[in-house]
Amino acid sequence: MKKFSQWVSSIAEAGREFLPRRNRQDKKQTLSSLCHELCTSKGEAMGTAIAHEVVKAYQALNDTEQLEFFNMLYREFSPEPKQILECAEAFKQNTTMETYRALYHAVEAPRHRLFSRINMAPKGTATLIKMRLQLLSLLDKQPHLAGIDYDLKHLMISWFNRGFLTLEKISWRTPAQTLEKLIAYEAVHEMSGWDDLRRRLADDRRCFAFFHPALDDEPLIFVEVALVKGMAGNVQELLADPDTDDVAAANGNGNGNGHHSEFDTAIFYSISNCQEGLRGISFGNFLIKQVVLELRSEFPQLKQFATLSPIPGFRRWLKQEIDNPESPLLEGEEREHLQLLDTPNWHDDPTCCELLQPLLTRLCAHYLYTAKKGQKPLDPVARFHLGNGARIARLNWLGDTSANGLRQSCGLLVNYGYELKHVEENHEAFVNEGQINIAPEFQKLLK
């Protein structure tokens, strides 16, 4: 991957010899004029060198100057409505390739060309990702900039399609620079340092990541996998160090640590997107399906592929139901029981758990299966896996008793099962009809 960035840098360096003379004549050249010049330059070396100057100039901007830059893009690099209407009328009157081409170019924002040219520069792709991240943070208060985000996202979907991505297995032999990024980017189950990472790269674990050639050793997304016997239901057991923790060790309770021949299940327990500037561009569906192929090749005996997933929206949804006196899901006594959730360390109290377990598992099953955002599940993780063709397999009581697990889902975790022969069928039913496939064990919770 570094060869690609080195090649781009060599082109930029070749064009730099043309820049000093021009800059001496115009030392006050603005970022705006650089952008306009970049859009009109024809030579590859010169264009790449100017793109490099744009990247350096943008990276030097403070927050106020970044907003000014985005407003400049809005004013000076938006499509011209009058030209669009004229070209549309010409196309309507005379439908030819020439009028179609004119309409196409009129509709396409000039900033499309600008972003594509910036992408030619060394670090250009990374700069555009950071640019979009900064832009996303402004949209609530600057909604007129949404068109710029639309254009950037449209281009990035093309630049980061599956054909350009490489899947790499992460191991203890992976360069330390990349391993450090895995620790930093872990978004589901935080790693406290190198010891945690070493456990997650142990012999009964696998980690895979997608990379893009323009980003060197910067991962886009990575998935952590545990090889276990039977379905895993508790993430603390799954992450436990087998040398210091004797909880359910290697006895078929789904926490791994066994011999390769004993593994029959692959558990995807953490999927982390690494680039916030690529928000809304999905890699996870490709990643899971390709990792399944890799694991089946390495371990033909694997019979099950499933996740051990968080339920990030459950506690928030539950609060809304509690606050709604008309909620048909709760009766008076149940509301009283739910007040136990405010008791410190309630999950360590057998009496509290006895009262809460049947109630919370029923409500959580209802949340996952019936709570909607439009036509799709309200829970974002459910939307992702069900859209990939998984089914809801099982709810796990106190599957995550970390502070975050208790805060977001009352400690509940869910297994989404990937039954390979039904994945495409489930995907089509979900996308076209909103149908959710569920296992019989989960079905019982809905009654």
TrEMBL record:
<dbReference type="InterPro" id="IPR038917">
    <property type="entry name" value="Malonyl_CoA_deC"/>
</dbReference>
<dbReference type="InterPro" id="IPR007956">
    <property type="entry name" value="Malonyl_CoA_deC_C"/>
</dbReference>
<dbReference type="Pfam" id="PF05292">
    <property type="entry name" value="MCD"/>
</dbReference>
<dbReference type="InterPro" id="IPR035372">
    <property type="entry name" value="MCD_N"/>
</dbReference>
<dbReference type="Pfam" id="PF17408">
    <property type="entry name" value="MCD_N"/>
</dbReference>
<dbReference type="InterPro" id="IPR038351">
    <property type="entry name" value="MCD_N_sf"/>
</dbReference>
<dbReference type="GO" id="GO:0050080">
    <property type="term" value="F:malonyl-CoA decarboxylase activity"/>
</dbReference>
<protein>
    <submittedName>
        <fullName>Malonyl-CoA decarboxylase</fullName>
    </submittedName>
</protein>
<feature type="domain" description="Malonyl-CoA decarboxylase N-terminal">
    <location>
        <begin position="77"/>
        <end position="160"/>
    </location>
</feature>
<dbReference type="GO" id="GO:0006633">
    <property type="term" value="P:fatty acid biosynthetic process"/>
</dbReference>
<feature type="domain" description="Malonyl-CoA decarboxylase C-terminal">
    <location>
        <begin position="163"/>
        <end position="419"/>
    </location>
</feature>
<dbReference type="InterPro" id="IPR042303">
    <property type="entry name" value="Malonyl_CoA_deC_C_sf"/>
</dbReference>
